[in-house]
């Protein structure tokens, strides 16, 4: 098996933003009169396009929630997140830049994908000082495709963007079950969970990943394996 492309999730996987997104999702939902816990928000919403995450968290109470309510909470979430990101000291996850460099030296393309919209993703990337095309090959966001995770559409777009023809040569790495399901839906050869972000090893294992790793650099032996 030869891996030609690795698609990495952003928040929790390659970007350390102190879980601010899911803290903000919870704050916006609970400001609308609910009392969901942080664990509920992360178990249900991790990795999803954020209006979908809000919809799925609200559904936990067993009631019907109209699109107008979801849209209002999502709008509040975006305002809160803008303020949070303006103040946030974003860092890369340990080893991210070095891993990207080593993969690309091996001829492996590196793509970031995310449940964020493109504007939010680019803001994060700028805070890190990363440049698309220089530090990694391509960025694909939830706003670039019609279907978000768990559908594999972002990975399929990434393959087209960097001219990789078969998912048999693609690895997906992410910190949530939905990242793993996304890779499985796209037919990726490797669907790897990582314990640095939103979900625990036990939760990740429920999605039946190819492997679970604890550090980004643990990926290299899997890529180098014959």
TrEMBL record:
GO molecular function list: phosphoglycolate phosphatase activity; phosphonoacetaldehyde hydrolase activity
Gene3D superfamilies: HAD superfamily/HAD-like, Putative phosphatase, domain 2
Pfam families: Hydrolase
Lineage: Bacteria, Pseudomonadati, Planctomycetota, Planctomycetia, Pirellulales
EC nos: 3.11.1.1
Keywords, alphabetical: Hydrolase
Top-rank lineage group of the source organism: Bacteria
One of the GO BP terms on file: DNA repair
Descriptive protein name: Phosphonoacetaldehyde hydrolase
One annotated Gene Ontology cellular component of this protein: cytosol
Keyword Transmembrane helix: no
Organism name: Stieleria neptunia
PANTHER family documented for this protein: PHOSPHOGLYCOLATE PHOSPHATASE, PHOSPHONOACETALDEHYDE HYDROLASE
């Amino acid at each position: 098996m030869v891996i030609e492309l690795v698609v990495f999730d952003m928040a929790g996987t390659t970007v350390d933003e102190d879980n601010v997104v899911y803290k903000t999702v919870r704050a916006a939902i609970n400001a609308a009169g609910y009392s969901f816990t942080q664990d509920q928000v992360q178990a249900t919403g991790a990795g999803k396009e954020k209006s979908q995450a809000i919809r799925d968290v609200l559904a936990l109470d067993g009631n019907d929630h109209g699109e107008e309510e979801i849209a209002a909470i999502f709008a509040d979430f975006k305002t809160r997140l803008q303020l949070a990101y303006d103040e946030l000291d974003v860092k890369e996850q340990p080893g991210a830049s070095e891993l990207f460099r080593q993969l690309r030296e091996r001829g492996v393309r590196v793509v970031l994908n995310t449940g964020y919209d493109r504007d939010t993703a680019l803001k994060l990337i700028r805070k890190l000082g990363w440049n698309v095309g220089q530090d990694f090959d391509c960025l694909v966001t939830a706003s670039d495709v019609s279907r978000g995770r768990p559908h594999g559409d972002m990975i399929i777009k990434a393959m087209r963007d960097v001219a990789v023809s078969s998912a048999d040569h693609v690895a997906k790495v992410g910190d949530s079950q939905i990242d793993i399901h996304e890779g499985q839906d796209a037919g990726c050869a490797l669907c790897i969970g990582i314990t640095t972000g939103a979900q625990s090893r036990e939760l990740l294992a429920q999605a039946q990943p190819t492997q679970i790793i604890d550090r980004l650099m643990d990926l290299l032996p899997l890529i180098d394996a014959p």
